[in-house]
Amino acid sequence: MGQKANPIGNRLGFIRGWDSQWYGGRNYGDKIAEDAAIRKYLYARLSRANV
Known about the structure:
The structure is a single chain. The protein has two helices and no strands. By secondary structure, the chain is mostly helical. The two termini are 27 Å apart. The protein has a domain at 24-51.
């Protein structure tokens, strides 16, 4: 049995871009802190959900 490759991983950079891509401009530091807080919250809430 062969192993299947992820089609999104194969297309990144050629046909489509990354799913999470953003630019902050002057507020880049604030956006990074906000992103880290959101990821931390979601990880805490969904860590046992097998998502």
